[in-house]
Amino acid sequence: MKEERYFYVPDASHQNELPKEEAQHALRVLRMQAGDEMFLMDGCGTFYQAEISAASTKHCLYNIRQTLSQKKTWNGRIHLAIAPTKMMDRMEWMTEKCTEIGFDELTFLRCQFSERTTIRTDRIEKIVVGAVKQSRKAWKPIVNELTKFSDFIHTPREGRKFIAHCYDEIDRADLFQTLQQTPQEEDVTILIGPEGDFSIEEVREAISQGYESITLGSSRLRTETAGLMAVAMAQLSKRNV
Amino acid sequence: MKEERYFYVPDASHQNELPKEEAQHALRVLRMQAGDEMFLMDGCGTFYQAEISAASTKHCLYNIRQTLSQKKTWNGRIHLAIAPTKMMDRMEWMTEKCTEIGFDELTFLRCQFSERTTIRTDRIEKIVVGAVKQSRKAWKPIVNELTKFSDFIHTPREGRKFIAHCYDEIDRADLFQTLQQTPQEEDVTILIGPEGDFSIEEVREAISQGYESITLGSSRLRTETAGLMAVAMAQLSKRNV
């Protein structure tokens, strides 16, 4: 059985040529030729079965043969907002895994105790696209630029909003239990703090903006594992079985 | 507040000296001295509050001040048996994350389509110990040597046994739904195949040995992500809230 080849082509139905990097991959790595079949993913819910109409050293033109509308496999949107860890590789693998597991939006936060205050979102975007292709996701998660914590929480958002933290003096509900009692269609936004946690003032400010105080359970998790488990909990609560 | 220092000392109550590597860490990295407080983890359910009684360049002796029996935070045992991926780093991070999330035993499998047929379990063991300390787990997961698939499935095991695979022609139940309907105390063993999946003969052989055919859901997951999600599903089904 021939492996199906997938390429990420935003707005694929209005184009007839693979973007530069995808063309390189198709032509130089996979050595595809005119007449070969491929699948295009627009990242917005549609796959296209296409055929290479012409291939040169750098350009790969295609004709679409069939439009394949995809069904989303979970309900409601899952938005993870997380303070990036000091070590970039931990954020990178978390991004890859969250994309495979399934989520909709990723925002990096700049917090009071942040150990990292810049992040190359172009690298993160590449990892997302790679994981979208590898795991054949019909929707590409949105990656947002690093955002100041207070700007983030003061932006209006649909659905339920949660902030995970470790302060015993503030009551915390269990995130997974709460999510399982939430209608599947409702959007969720989950905030995960830096290695040194959110400051207690940040937690209180978020609560005043409608964020619910939560815990991910009794396990002591690293930042990136907390981000991953938050997405896993949301996905397991919202997926269609 | 002073950070609490944790050290892994198997059989800690019958010893009075840190193992070599732990002593090095305490003395050279953390620069601890006689009189300093520390916590010992025996990996079998007990922490000990201890004090350094004597410290030389290479030796770190301790006196135990208090025995702190821990309560397990989940019910039943979670055993993941997985074919190692070609890239070792993927198995290493999976091991770290599964330890943080919480599981009891890890076995590497040698399967028909395995891309990797050797594994340095000493490295994996070190990662487990590091994650046990970092996430303050009272029980250290057991790491087993690489085992032949057929030997593994012919070994009797308590509880429910599952094999995840991608063959449409064999009925598959949803693992998470099944786990949520299973008594928490029941042990679970979950098999995850290599990049090229188990062979269909392996799946049938496992089923004949009482393994239940399962899927992790509609997402197409890499091997290491499948291992991680299997552990996450078991943990979320078995944890005490």
From TrEMBL, chains A, B:
EC numbers, comma separated: 2.1.1.193
Reaction(s) the record says it catalyses: uridine(1498) in 16S rRNA + S-adenosyl-L-methionine = N(3)-methyluridine(1498) in 16S rRNA + S-adenosyl-L-homocysteine + H(+)
A Pfam match: PUA_4
Domain of life (superkingdom): Bacteria
SUPFAM superfamilies noted in UniProt: alpha/beta knot, PUA domain-like
Residue ranges of domain Ribosomal RNA small subunit methyltransferase E methyltransferase in the record: 76-234
Keyword annotations from UniProtKB, A to Z: Cytoplasm, Methyltransferase, rRNA processing, S-adenosyl-L-methionine, Transferase
Broad class of the protein's primary localization: cytoplasm
GO molecular function annotations of the record: rRNA (uridine-N3-)-methyltransferase activity
Compartment list: Cytoplasm
One GO cellular component, as annotated: cytoplasm
Any one Gene Ontology BP term: rRNA base methylation
Primary enzyme class: transferase
Residue intervals of the Ribosomal RNA small subunit methyltransferase E PUA-like domain: 18-60
Keyword Transcription: no
NCBIfam families: PRK11713.6-1 (NF008702), RsmE family RNA methyltransferase (TIGR00046)
UniProt function note: Specifically methylates the N3 position of the uracil ring of uridine 1498 (m3U1498) in 16S rRNA. Acts on the fully assembled 30S ribosomal subunit.
Sequence similarity: Belongs to the RNA methyltransferase RsmE family.
Protein name listed in UniProt: Ribosomal RNA small subunit methyltransferase E
